[in-house]
Amino acid sequence: MLTNDPVWSYEARRQDMPHTKVSQGVVDLLVIGGGFCGLTGALHAARQGLGVRLVDAGRIGDGASGLNGGQVIPGLKYDPDWLLRHFDENRGAAVVDFVSRTADAVFDLIDREKLDVPRSRSGWIQACHTEKALAAATARYKQWRGYSDQVEMLDAKGIQSAIGADNYLGGFHDRRAGVINPLALTLELARLARENGVDIQENSRCVSLLRRDGAWIARLADGSEVRAGKVLLAANAYSDGLIPGLAATLVPLHSLQIATAPIADEDLRPILPAGQAVSDSRRILVYYRRAAGNRLILGGRGPMRLSRRPQDWAHLERALVRLFPSLRGVAIERRWFGRVAVTLDHLPHVNEPEPGLVTIVGCQGRGVGLMTASGPRLVDYLLSGDPDRLPLPLTPIAPIPFHRFRQIGVGAMIAWYRMLDALEQ
Prior knowledge:
Elements: E1 26-32, H1 36-46, E2 52-55, H2 64-67, E3 71-72, H3 80-86, H4 89-100, H5 102-113, E4 119-120, E5 124-128, H6 131-144, E6 151-154, H7 156-163, E7 170-174, E8 178-180, H8 182-195, E9 199-201, E10 206-212, E11 215-220, E12 225-233, E13 251-260, H9 265-268, E14 277-280, E15 286-291, E16 295-301, H10 314-323, E17 332-342, E18 349-354, E19 357-361, H11 367-384, H12 406-424
Parallel strand pairs: 1-2, 1-12, 2-9, 5-14, 12-19
Antiparallel strand pairs: 3-8, 4-8, 5-7, 6-7, 10-11, 11-12, 13-16, 13-17, 14-15, 15-16, 18-19
Helix pairs in contact: 1-8, 1-11, 3-4, 5-11
């Protein structure tokens, strides 16, 4: 169970990561981005004897992997039947099998490597607030029960007992899922990667990447260069102009979170007593879970601009009281946000802009499991060229038309959806 420190306390566990030059800047694999995908990919490569350098534009843990909601949810936004129709029969079956096991990848890794990561594998509840949402969740359950006996439907009484809120008609419970301390996992993966020979270089933005004489040449912001045989670009929502057109395939969003001060035992006891993670079915959903020290963490979408004022988190504080009226007056101890990115088709995209360079973007709310499981698979593909090793089939880089105006449209859509959600309360 989550009995250790709250998410942010792991900031105190940071250590300066020593940087040792690898063979005068020549490596077998360069990893750009120090989140779950980059770290697991780098670790996997190093254990196969490759010389690996990982560079990150900031500090390890300051991106989405360290700042996310800590919910480890298998699957994708789409359910098995859709995936089988969308991909060819064999590849669709492989995709379903892969995404069904992404939560296993996280918890098995923590246990196998004895990582110091607070976690709880009590499941994830998709809580439904309308009959339409409940029908969709029931269809999801019927499909996934053909692949796992760890899924069930909750009726109104069952979900009220599981969550401690009477706002829902029922829900889908996936016991394969769970919660982790995301910053703890990020920092532990970095420690493990370093111990296995990965050269991690923080605060080292890669400003250009080009192929020359059969190798990749990466120039860093300090003017130094790294020459690599293969490159794994694992920046996701923080992708910029390094790969032409890649950032324009994504819609950047901000995910905001709040954490309460410690809650009295008698007030917390009926709330998520078994410790599941929850996401609701609203158009602009909120998600929440218990955290260490008798706290609750609740998150949801925020403004398109950077959030600076406490008022930017006010809609989450209102949601907290709407769900759990007994918590009215509980202090908010921490507010933070991170950048996420979604694709227009709501699928993760695996791209290979050129041979020897691969990237994955667009987690759609499944990033902890998806990215942890994808890193080693992408490295295997880089080394073997076998497309069956990929987590999902390759897709071309296709920038969104009028991408520069997309944020304006998304901001308006969020406001509209939030109003519709309010009318349904």
